[in-house]
Amino acid sequence: MDTFNDVETWKDLFENANDLIQSVDENGRFLYVNKKWRDILGYTNDEAGRLAFPNIIYPSHLQACFAAFAEMQKGKSFDNFSTQFVAKDGRVIDVEGNISVRMKDGKFISTWGIFRDVTARNQREQELDHIAKMLVRRDFELLQTNDILRIRDEQISKEHELNRAKSEFVSLASHQLKTPLTIIKWYIDMLNAGYADDVLEKQKEYLGKIYTNTERMVELVDAFLNVSRLELGVFAIKKEPINLKDKIEAILKNLDPKIKEKNLKVSKTYAKDDIVISADLKIIQIIFENLISNAIKYTPAGGKIHITMQKKSDEILIGITDTGIGIPVGQQSKIFTKFFRADNVSTQKIDGTGLGLYLVKTLIEKTGGKIWFESTENKGSAFYVTFCPD
Ligand code: ADP
User: Fold this and answer.
1) Which of 52, 146, 237, 255 has a 20 to 30 Å separation from 364 between CA atoms?
2) Residues 10-25: pLDDT tens digits?
3) Distance CA 110, CA 30 (A)
4) For residue 316, what are the CA distances in angstroms to 140, 203, 227, 296, 380?
């Protein structure tokens, strides 16, 4: 223990300590600074000798340091004193340490401060604090996103329910409407056939109008029924072999009165051999009835309709071309949308529901086929449909 009575040993201990050690006189001037202090703050011993503590304190801490120094001069020591030093090159160093006071006969002599450089630790703490805040923020954002998603999910399922209820209502209402309409048509037939006495010419004309409008209503009800069945997913599909040429011919025969009424010229280019596909008869009927009756409806009197049917290696291609009013370019992208009708058909007062092509496209896609068209306003349209041969 003798060595510790030796002043040189104490000096050596202070000088080479791993902490910043400084001693300040009653005027705040440095009496002593150790090697670590000089290394970190960048001053030589001589330079330090010309400095007072306010020269190395970061400005925002000056006031607190002056107040503490005044207390020290009264003999008060400080534990865990934190402040910031400024090095010669301007670096800011966070320090933390103890300051003890040397007094003699009640008079202040000097202070001894032992500080630790805690800049790196504080930086790490700040970083951790930043990360923690970020995590809290992210957590909050995730909670908000979850809330938004939950609300959206609820809205979607409500919309789904509502749509389903709507489709069910339309399906039920359409179904109920079909029977009275059919009965109206029977009675018109009976009146026309003279079951209730002779019918005058004028009465015949009015009965004809009632009949046409009843038929139009039946078509509308059929379209509603089919769309709602499709949307409810209850469109029953029963595949059977269908001879496409025969089917199209049958549809044309049905529509013959309308073709004749408008004096339209219908030509056909069919494949030599019969083309038979395996499909649902109802679907094929809806597709071609819609496409051919559109060609008839939207072609002015005296116009032409051409039907082509070809079998290619991997598909069957059917085209229905007309010399009708065409579809305005700006509206072509909407043509398969539910209830969409182009401006030129509304201005010309041509009747329709805007449901046919929506139904046709949905049904064709259900069978794995495709539909597209080319059209020039006032020149005509060509609708193409493909099916896969089975
Ligand atoms: P609509 O009952 O109105 O005919 P569709 O769904 O069958 O309903 O057709 C939608 C719209 O597409 C029609 O209103 C019409 O504007 C246009 N369109 C369909 N086919 C033709 C065609 N061959 N020529 C001109 N426009 C057509």
Assistant:
1) 255
2) 888 889 999 999 999 9
3) 9
4) 57, 48, 26, 23, 23
Helix (H) or strand (E) holding 181: helix 119-192
Q: What is the rounded radius of gyration, in angstroms, for the C-alpha atoms of the chain?
A: 48
Taking the centre of ligand 1 as the mean of its atom positions, its distance from the CA of residue 370, in whole angstroms, is: 17
Indicate the residue type of 298: Y
CA 69 – CA 52 distance, rounded (Å): 12
- Centre of ligand 1 from the C-alpha of residue 184, in Å: 28
Could you tell me the distance, in angstroms and rounded to a whole number, from the CA of residue 354 to the centre of ligand 1?
7
Residue where the block lists tokens 């202090």: 37
CA distance 152 to 166: 20
> Ligand 1 test: best mutation among 218, 298, 336, 364, most atoms within 8 Å of CB?
298
The whole-angstrom separation of Cα 288 and Cα 248 is 7
Residue 347 vs residues 225, 325, 350: alpha-carbon distances, Å:
27, 12, 8
In angstroms, what is the span from residue 361 Cα to ligand 1's centroid?
Answer: 13
Spatial distance between the Cα atoms of 31 and 37, rounded to a whole number of angstroms: 13
Ligand 1 atom closest to Cα of residue 223? 2
pLDDT digits (tens, 9 = 90+) for 159-209: 888 888 888 888 888 888 888 899 999 999 999 988 888 889 999 999 999
Give the distance (Å) from ligand 1 centre to CA of residue 336: 9
CA–CA separation, 169 vs 227, rounded Å? Answer: 12
Q: Which residues are CB-contacts of 351 (< 8 A; sequence separation ≥ 6)?
A: 216, 297
What's the pTM value of the predicted model, to 2 decimals? 0.60
For tokens 């800049």, what's the residue?
119
Of 385, 382, 358, nearest in space to 369 by CA: 385
State how far the alpha carbon of 245 is from the alpha carbons of 270, 288, 319, 377, in Å. Answer: 7, 11, 12, 29
Lining residues, ligand 1, CB within 6 Å: 290, 294-295, 298, 322, 324-327, 335, 340-342, 345, 352-358, 381
The SS3 assignment for 122 reads helix
